[in-house]
């Protein structure tokens, strides 16, 4: 038991005032949906703030923890270095990758972006996503747990419920 209570309509309500309602990744849609999020999202490397925003976008997709995309204006450009190579998402298009460089520390492929996102995901233009397995990520001060596997980059916070795709044995889901 997590202390949350289920209302008559099936929506789980937070156990404490100020907590967010529980979200099951199995209630997220496919194709994915973009949702704005005004909570404070921070990304750090070696104690330095790489990004800090209250204007994030979450991508919600069945079986995956949300992925947060942060406006480029709220990311310290001097810490980013383009990385060769691309991948392709059937929904969002071609992804470009970025190293995060802080002092002498290089975190390879720590972030990605869609420079020319496909139609329904146009709002991702000018945003970057970060792998919480590679950098420190927090939502309203809560440290993020990385989704298993390093392919998807989902952010797990206390209100997100799985099971999650990405770990061993889940590729066929």
Account of the protein in words:
With 173 residues, the protein is an all-beta fold. It has no helices and 17 strands. The chain has a 7-stranded antiparallel β-sheet, with no helix packed on it. It has a 4-stranded antiparallel β-sheet with strand order 6-5-13-14, with no helix packed on it. A two-stranded antiparallel sheet has the order 1-2. A hairpin with a 2-residue loop joins strand 13 (136-139) and strand 14. The model is unreliable at 1-14 (pLDDT under 50).
Structural class: mainly beta
| Sheet with the most strands, sense and barrel status | 7 strands, antiparallel
Secondary-structure element series: EEEEEEEEEEEEEEEEE
Numbering strands along the chain, what is their spatial order in the largest sheet?
4-7-8-12-11-10-9
Helix share bin? under 10%
Question: Ends: how far apart?
Answer: 26 Å
- The general outline is globular
Mean pLDDT: 89
Poorly predicted segments: 1-14
Task: Tell how many strands the DSSP assignment holds.
Answer: 17
Percent strand equals: over 45%
Counted by DSSP, the helix tally is 0
Oligomeric composition of the shown chains: single chain
């Amino acid at each position: 038991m997590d202390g949350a209570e289920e209302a008559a309509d099936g929506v789980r309500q937070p156990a404490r005032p100020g907590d967010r309602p529980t979200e099951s990744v199995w209630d997220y849609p496919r194709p994915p949906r973009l949702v704005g999020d005004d909570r404070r999202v921070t990304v750090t490397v070696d104690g330095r703030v790489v990004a800090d925003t209250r204007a994030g976008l979450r991508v919600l997709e069945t079986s995956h923890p949300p992925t947060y995309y942060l406006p480029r204006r709220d990311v310290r450009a001097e810490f980013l270095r383009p990385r060769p190579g691309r991948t392709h998402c059937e929904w969002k298009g071609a992804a470009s990758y970025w190293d995060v460089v802080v002092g002498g520390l290089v975190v390879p492929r720590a972030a990605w972006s869609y420079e020319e996102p496909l139609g329904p995901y146009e709002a991702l233009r000018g945003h970057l996503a970060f792998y919480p397995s590679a950098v420190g990520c927090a939502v309203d001060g809560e440290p993020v747990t990385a989704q298993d596997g390093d392919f998807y980059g989902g952010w797990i916070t206390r209100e997100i419920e799985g099971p999650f795709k990405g770990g061993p044995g889940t590729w066929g889901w």
